[in-house]
Specification:
The protein is an alpha/beta fold and 246 residues long. The protein is 36% helix and 26% strand. It has a six-stranded mixed beta sheet with strand order 6-7-8-3-9-10, sandwiched between helices. A four-stranded antiparallel beta sheet has the order 2-1-4-5. α4 crosses α5 and α7 crosses α8. The N and C termini lie far apart (44 Å).
């Protein structure tokens, strides 16, 4: 489905964004934007601030400084309105095991208050997300992790989300499933979706991203154009920052 936004339209924007837990700064002074049709990957180890960033955009957390904006509006001015523009795929996609892929998509569609989704429309969305053939009719209990991730993408497609937030979506996937998911993410971006992805996988991040953002100890320490350097150079850059943290 086409997102009718101009390519340079900022969909996600962090302005001096910060979050403190107790006395610990989980995120500090983050300035970042993601435009329509752009893929931005957040790279960093545990505690770098990647998941905190996603949680602030989704309204799961409240900022202690700055603002997270979706479509120009502060998330915490109206969290439901912000979430209406967002699709979210966590590392572990929690779905009802007794439902089929089609029934799952219809359930989440109904839950969001959208018009009913026919079996044919649901199957088409799942196919676009990469769940093809008769697998859409099988129970979620039989799905691999990669298949569950594709259902998550289909839910975002049904929502016509302007932005897709992905938290370690490649973790635990075999190489074929990971490559396929990357291709699906690229296709969504080509169709106008803004994508913000947190990942440890530097090579696939280099493959899918327009920009790579290295985070360390809650701060954005470097942003680079992924096309301006090779995969090995991206790895060297990332490892240099990780060694500096050690």
């Amino acid at each position: 489905m086409t997102i009718t936004l101009l390519p340079d339209t900022p969909v996600l924007k962090a302005e001096g964004l910060g979050r403190i837990f107790g006395a610990t700064p989980a995120l500090a002074d983050l300035d970042l934007s993601v435009s329509a049709g752009e893929v931005v990957c957040l790279l960093g180890g545990n505690g770098a601030g990647k998941t905190t960033t996603l949680g602030l955009f989704l309204g799961f957390l409240s900022p202690t400084a700055g603002a997270a904006r979706v479509m120009g509006r502060s998330v915490h001015d109206d969290i439901p309105a912000a979430r209406a523009h967002l699709g979210y795929v966590p590392e572990i996609v929690a779905l009802y095991p007794t439902l089929s892929g089609i029934e799952t998509l219809q359930y989440f569609n109904d839950l969001a208050g959208r018009p009913p989704l026919s079996n044919c429309a649901a199957r088409d969305l799942l196919c676009t997300a990469g769940l093809e053939g008769d697998r859409a009719s099988k129970r979620i209990a039989t799905y691999s992790k990669g298949m569950r991730q594709k259902v998550g993408l289909a839910i975002a497609l049904a929502k016509q989300a302007a932005a897709l937030l992905l938290d370690e979506p490649l973790s635990g996937l075999d190489p074929a499933a990971a490559n396929d998911l990357v291709e699906r993410i690229k296709a969504l971006a080509r169709n106008g979706t803004a994508v913000l992805m947190a990942t440890h996988d530097i090579f696939r991040a280099h493959d899918v991203a327009d920009r790579l953002c290295v985070m360390r100890a809650g701060r954005l320490v470097e942003t680079v154009d992924a096309r301006s350097l090779s995969a090995s150079a991206a790895e060297a850059l990332y490892l240099a920052h990780m060694r500096a943290q050690a």
